[in-house]
Specification:
heterodimer, A: alpha+beta, Immunoglobulin-like, four-stranded antiparallel sheet, 3 helices, about 20% helix, about 30% strand, B: about 575 residues, alpha/beta, six-stranded mixed sheet, five-stranded mixed sheet
Amino acid sequence: MKLDRRQVLGLTAGAAVFAVAGVRVTPATAAAEDAAKRIMEFTGGKQPASGKITLKTPEIAENGNTVPISVSVESAMSGDDMVQSVMILAEGNPNPDVATFHFTELSGEASATTRMRLAKTQNVVAIAKMKDGSVYSDTRQVKVTIGGCGG
Amino acid sequence: MFTRRDFLQYTINAGAALGVAGYGANITRALAQQKLTQDELLKFDSKGQITLLHFTDVHAQLKPVYFRPPDTNIGIGDYAGIPPHLVGEEFLKYFGITKGSPLAYAHTMVNYEELARTYGRLGGLDRTATLVKAIRGERGDDRVLFLDGGDTWQGSYTSLKSNGQDVVDCMKLLKPDAMVGHWEFTLGEDRVKEIIDDMGYPFLASNIFDNEWDEPVFESTAMFEKGGVKVAVIGQAMPYTPISNPGWMFPKWSFGIRPETLQENVDKARGDGAEVVVLLSHNGFDVDRKLAGVVNGIDVILTGHTHDATPQAIEIGSTLLLASGSHGKYLGRVDLEVRDGKVVGHSSNLIPVFSDVIQPDSEMAAKIDEVRKPHETELNRVLGKTENLLYRRGNFNGTWDDLICQGIIEQRDTQIALSPGFRWGTTLLPDQDIAVDDLYTQTSMSYPSVYRLEFTGTQMKEILEDVCDNLFNKDPFLQQGGDMVRVGGMSYTCSPNADMGGRISDMRLMSTGELLEADKKYVVGGWASVNENVEGPAIYDLMEKHITQKQVVSLHDQPTVKVEM
């Protein structure tokens, strides 16, 4: 790639604008750090493992203002094999909080569906907290695009 | 993966005929008929109990067309250098096709103009009808499934004026067993439902769900018994229709690739006794190539949307993938031999529909004449003439869009023009007249307004980066199909392999050579915005005026995009 950075910089004197307008995929932002902090608060400092929890999102949002997502956790939902709560975070939103779902034995199964607003292309994270103290997470990137040129 | 034997029938070298440049249909007919016969085109290694016929992306072209294949079709990452990302000489080499042969003309732009004058136009629904009838006759109706891959009802003057009814009436005569959709949805939800209720064959979509209740809007699957074998056909609509096209025209429907849903539908079909599972898809080639490795249990994917054409089916694991081109140029055929509930053998071929060689089906020809008759005078009205080859396909530009961008800049007095990277639209040879019919093959659509707005340099970069990421994302599931938005009045450098935000650089105004500035505003015109209530003249009216004023179209080669791989 022979990209002359000086020219790009000359062009994009206000390069920060790109992050705001949301065409960049850069998870390492202040919002992502904020999200990481929330996760630690939620899990009590425990690093979530992968597995058990499945987050479903569209690959590309049809409308960034209302993106459907669903989450489910494998669990017997009785005895020690219980999901207590599931937290959803959007790493790239000005405020990463989306929702926290609480479950009881009467829930029967640990699954939930909701819609969220996404300001730009970003990772959505779902974290499940189990009764035995274990935590699991799943992450999916959702693309938010201008669209309009498909053939 | 493919055998040379299957191509021999088409590869008689046309070299001797190349010196003869004929214009009239009679001359190309004579030349084409020297090289080919209808029987040769139909020659096929018939196999097993089932024949699948695939017809896709005709874009309402009822009559034969010239259609120049792309000179640039870049694949990214794992998808580089393999079908469909091969063009020109590379394509010929990979598939063992002789230069100058009829197949070389159908599949590549090598010596396009000369070969077009030799072999003539391809397609025409009356020619396709002849092939379909012949194959049904040879194999028996009870062994053949004829499947329409969508993008059928949009793309011509008559389809626009009749809201797709002209094509629907013609397709009814061909009696497809099922179809899927994409541009169909730009007729709006009500019209789509009205046609489906009337057309007499299933409209399938495994991946369209109601926004409110998250329930399937259409049947996902149609079951058939063919040649004593149970066959399930599952449909996929273009996954990103509400993003690539105006979602407000069908606001209740949500799309997406939905591989999990597809897996469930495949499993259900198998559970219901299907011995063969066929996916009739408008996903696009790379999406389907990836999908073949993600979803288990699909025997054949008949793929459309990206207008790619593979001379034969390609094997991806245990799934066959056949791409049957566009604009009626080809009829795809796959024969399957099934034993003990499993596909044990196959043969496949993409039959090029040489219009000067294949006898038109009289019933279909009469229907095409009937639907065009009320518009005949307007269709044939000549607006001007072209000195250049006018074509659209290619990742970055084509002369038709150069002309459209020129029209927007001059007619709407803008600094920059944008024309969407559509892959539909036919070709005109140098010195051909430009008639109304031709103009509408490039512009016929239900949201044609040409906007005139001010964008900052930053916004221009955002737009180009966004479209570029939809085309060159390393993950095919994030590609929407189509090509790069065409740009007039401005040049830039594109690095397809870079990440989003880093692909577009060196954006300059062509008039002065100056770099675009981030905060400075530029007057930009463009068409086919997906937003509601866009104001401006329709692109076909604007271009009619432009071509009429020019009289003779003469485009100077002025490359606007520098590609750095």
